[in-house]
DNA sequence: TATTGTTATACTCTATAACTATA
DNA sequence: TATAGTTATAGAGTATAACAATA
């Protein structure tokens, strides 16, 4: 039963330093994005234009934090704010072309890092890994209130 | 090609909120340990008696932080300090019986959580998952736990 | 001169509370 | 009354710098 080893590896992966290291590798060279604003930008890319509240639910942040990081990304020219036509209280956050470019750059970097990290495994192993990882996540992680998409 | 889904799942796992949620599940009910001191206690359990500097290297923290958290754990009665016989500058950190008990409790909790999260997967799948995860970690993480450390 | 442990300081991140506007 | 966005404030976490003691 390799449960003990899985536990140790997951624990290592979650160590603050290792998490920050991975985020730094992803965002290095992308101006205006760091390890704290990355989830906001990435979430916006996944969800499409969304309000700060919805985005906050999606990535598990407080909505005040989402607003502040959105402001930072806006000042960096990666995100824009626009009034919601249906609800005058709401503000829709969207990616600018520069923001889309930044997301694309980081996605490419992530896939390249992953491809290299998985290069010593067989395709069947990788497929099994992905399958179990998905189940593990479904069991470990609380579902966001938004619910429709997490991946 | 499940690389994209792996990337998304890993990203979700590393989200600050999800990481904190997992740590909270582990440490809930264990007095004197929280999501910040958990890695220190866990690292001490893996490494055995160690100095603050060595422990800091092991878990990727600054040594000033390791010292402060060790003080907190000491005040909670989970860790003791003792002079190093070989080096008068050094202080050796050790687990108290209460500290060992706390580690055991958290390990059991982690294994139980994992066992449930993996209960829908076949043993062969889990074995493959563990194998690929290990390779992934070796490639992704700068200094894996258990590696030789600088003094 | 370098290293260990520690403390002091400043900075960053995050949540709670409060305010405004709209539903 | 409730909700969206935002700002203000305070609390916690962390790193940098500095100190004394020892190598």
From TrEMBL, chains A, B:
The keyword Transcription applies. This is MarR family transcriptional regulator. Gene3D superfamilies: Winged helix-like DNA-binding domain superfamily/Winged helix DNA-binding domain. InterPro entries: HTH_MarR-typ, WH-like_DNA-bd_sf, WH_DNA-bd_sf. Keywords: DNA-binding, Transcription, Transcription regulation. GO terms for molecular function: DNA binding; DNA-binding transcription factor activity. Residues 7-138 form the HTH marR-type domain.
